[in-house]
Structure formats: structure tokens, C-alpha cells
Amino acid sequence: LFFKDGRVFERFSQAQFVAGRPAGRVWSFRDVTEHRLAEAALRESERRSRALIENSSEGIVTASPDGVVLWANPSTLQLLGHKLEDVRGRNLAEFIHPDDLPLVMELFGRVLMEPHQRPQGRTRTRHADGRWLTLEGTFTNLMKEPGLHAIVLHVRDVTESLALQEQLAQAHKMDAIGRLAGGVAHDFNNLLTAIVGHAELLKGHMTEGTAAFEDVAEIEKAAARAAGLTQ
Predict the structure, then answer these.
(1) pLDDT tens digits along 33-51
(2) Beta-bridge partner residues of 121
(3) Is the pTM of this model over 0.85?
């Protein structure tokens, strides 16, 4: 029964018999306004939570304590190139690089032993097409959360970010090498200038055609070649 003032009542009817013959009905009523409002608020809260999770750009995965995937949001599935039925019921170990499994097991153990902790880690995870992606994740223990009872993983893809960081580091190294090489070339050119200058002074005191003159000329040629190489 819906009243104009917003109250809602449930009504119940039970037939009554006397000597096997119908004698009437007993009606009872119960005010369920608050209960229905609470149910509506809960449904709205669940709807908002579901919308936030399913539309989150961050990957969200729920797993059992032994690592079996219970659920994954659309961002996770898109990231890894899978459908929900492809991952549900499978162990996370099937997707993790063998070298990174000890870390994942250590993080699972830590979050189970210390529920208040939210350990983080970085692992290589296989895409459906065979590629390895580097994912960064946070583990949260929600085993005591009603209706969930799971370990929750929040993950994001850092593959491209790490590659860019590596490229930037290489660029810095090459820049440092370039500056070092430029400094060495500058200093070497100064030495060559001194060698060529002193060779010219020596030639001024020598007779052309003599062995000593030819030796100094060879020094000048070698210095010129060294200058060209430095350039």
C-alpha cells in the first residue's frame, strides 16, 4: 500500500476456517517505509560503485587468497586483450612472468598476514597476443568485506612510461659522451696547434731539402691529418 505522504505498508492475508468451512480472513499490515528507503539507498550506492569500477581507467581485479581470478573490470580486460570468461577461474600465476612470480607470492603473503598494509609491486604480465606488459599494482585485503571476501588488485600499465624513461636515460648518456668528446677534441686541437707552430719555427732554421727539414715536414703533415680526424 502506497500512501500519499510517502509511507509504504506491506499487507498480509490469511484465510480462516471453522469446522472446515471458510469463516473469513485475517489481515495484518506492516510499515516498511524505512526498510524500502534503505533498500533503495543501497541499490543506488551499488549502482554508483559499479559504474565507478566499470568505468575506471585503472585496472581492478579481485582474486581469492590463493590467487584465483574472481572478477576483472573492463579496463583490465581491454589492457590484457582478454574476455572475462578467459580469465575468471584461472590463477594469476598463468599470466605473470616466471621471474616475477616470487614477488607476487611475497606480496600476496604480506597482504594476507598484514591486512592493513597495501603493498605495491611491478611485474611483467602476458597480453593475449603474447607480448609482455609491465604492470604496477597495489594489493588490498578485503577478505572481511561483506559480499566481496577477496584480495583486490589495482593495476596500471607502465610499459610505455618505463620505455620513455630508458630512452631519456640513454639520451642523457649520449649527451654526456658528446660533451666529453667535444672537450677532448678542443684540448687536442690546442696541442696540435702548438705542434704545428713549433714545427714551422724549426723549419725556419733549417735548409730545405735536408733530412731534418723533411722530418719536420712529416710532423706537419701528421699534425694536419690529426686535425682532420679530430674535426
Answers:
(1) 998 888 887 777 667 767 6
(2) 137
(3) no
